[in-house]
Amino acid sequence: MEGKRALVTGANSGMGLATSVALARMGAEVVMVCRSESRGKEALLRAKQESESERLSLMLCDLGSLDSIRRFAELFNQQYDSLDVLVNNAGVITLKRQETADGFEQMLGVNHLGHFLLTGLLLDKLKAAPNARIVNVSSGAHKAGRIDWNDPHLKNGFNVMKGYGQSKLANIWFTIELAERIKGTGMTANCLHPGAVGTQIGVDRSTGFGKTILKLLSYVFLTPEQGAETAIYLASSPEVAEISGKYFYKKKVTDTSILAGDREQAKKLWEWSEEQVQFQWE
Predict the structure, then answer these.
(1) Which CATH number is correct for 5-277, 3.40.50.1820, 3.30.70.141, 3.40.50.720, 3.60.140.10?
(2) What pTM value is reported for the model?
(3) Residues annotated as part of the active site
(4) Model pLDDT for residues 41-84, shown as the tens digit of each residue
(5) CA distance from start to end of the chain
(6) 3-class DSSP state of 81
């Protein structure tokens, strides 16, 4: 990764931070993209300490705001001439229905639509790098995902698994269609299931019970470092330099659900996404 530049979204904690640290250790210049400035600065300091590298920087972007994404992309495109690796890692899970600044259901808005627009706005910088890689973090939860095109933002009958599952299904459809569109450019796009990574969502860490739950979870689930291994592999390994449009688990190509492999639905999502974010890909 020496001489390469990587951008990681959701880099302030969890797998995003672990991915940033690992890529920096490999010699890459890493742009850590975070929503919170205070948490981002803490993560940047930690990443520099753990990677023993100074080639990391922080940029702010709220993937739940199309205006924020556009401002970020404009600034990035002004500062940098190319981008070798884009890791679309940031993700949210909401137990109750919430909306982004643009009125999207939050999980679909952040996990898919935000990254859809971000990737499109950075595409010229990816094209400027030799053999750039796009890595989308999906989940095995996509197998529970369905998109009701009459109610994609789940204004009726919301539940957390329905929302998260459809956002992770969208990650795979986006990857499949993107891989077709960039075929022949030297770029690749792949997605992955990181495994069951421990999360603090919904746990009150201020109570003794909450702390006990977190300790128990640490024995059951993967650490962020373990969960990030496949993303790091896809971002850096020469073994996947010419593989595109695939879904990985434990560093191996694996099957998606039958629905996730539906090319017509992938195209439909792409066209719908362009309308939602008001951005036409070239």
Answers:
(1) 3.40.50.720
(2) 0.91
(3) 164
(4) 999 999 999 999 999 999 999 999 999 999 999 999 999 999 99
(5) 29
(6) coil
